[in-house]
Design a protein that fits this description.
Keywords: Signal. By secondary structure, this protein is mainly beta. It has 2 helices and 10 strands; from the N terminus they run αβαβββββββββ. About 10% of the residues lie in helices and about 65% in strands. The longest helix has 20 residues.
């Protein structure tokens, strides 16, 4: 019984130590979004769709220089298409906001006044709002408009759930300030129809602070 109590006490102390080392962070920045598996014609006209992200996370040390970072993130994604020629031009942008839950494994490498960090992990997201917006001109005439995207029902524009893998890298100063870059590789099919599978591809850059 004494050994059992000692072992239990050691576990409690280790858990308390891990809890004491747990830190929390907030990151925000710019997203550059595109879609995969678009047609050759769309590929010629597809541009980066500029949006933003905000992510809150916990940093849970599980080994020296190694942490697990679960979080919650608001992500702006989508794509943009632009074309022009023969006295005509047009653009179409699809902007989608989603709430994501990432769980990244992060490795820290001491360097100078801080740490270089590298990480990767899965995410699952839920598309909560979206809009298509278009502008076009032909000669002296022009047209523009927008419409709300639907994520449910028989006539939905896009599937509700998005899932994939995140990759991230950056540098964190000892005072907690950090800069980071990331890439979101969508693996789930956003296309609700019978056409080609379409997934998110998102490059991101941002800054943050870890408390």
């Amino acid at each position: 019984m004494k050994k059992l109590l000692l072992s239990f006490g050691a576990v409690v102390l280790l858990a308390a130590g891990a809890q004491a080392q747990t830190s929390y962070g907030l990151k925000a920045g710019v997203n550059l979004g595109k879609y995969s598996n678009v047609s050759d014609l769309e590929k010629d006209y597809q541009k980066n769709n500029v949006s933003f992200y905000v992510t809150g996370y916990a940093d849970l040390p599980v080994a020296p220089q190694f942490s697990i970072q679960p979080g919650v993130s608001l992500q702006g994604k989508g794509a943009k298409y632009e074309a022009s020629g023969d006295n005509a031009s047009g653009s179409l942008s699809r902007n989608v906001m989603s709430i994501e839950v990432p769980v990244n494994a992060v490795y820290y490498i001491p360097a100078g006044a801080g740490n270089v960090f590298l990480g990767a992990g899965p995410y699952v997201g839920f598309n909560i709002s979206g809009k298509d917006k278009w502008d076009g001109s032909l000669g002296e005439g022009s047209t523009s408009g927008d419409r709300k995207l639907e994520f449910s029902g028989d006539n939905k524009d896009m599937n509700l759930i998005d899932a994939g893998v995140n990759f991230l890298a950056g540098y964190k100063l000892n005072n907690g300030f950090l800069i980071n870059a990331g890439y979101g590789l969508g693996l789930s099919n956003l296309n609700p129809g019978d056409g080609e599978k379409t997934s998110n591809r998102v490059l991101s850059f941002g800054v943050g602070f870890q408390f």
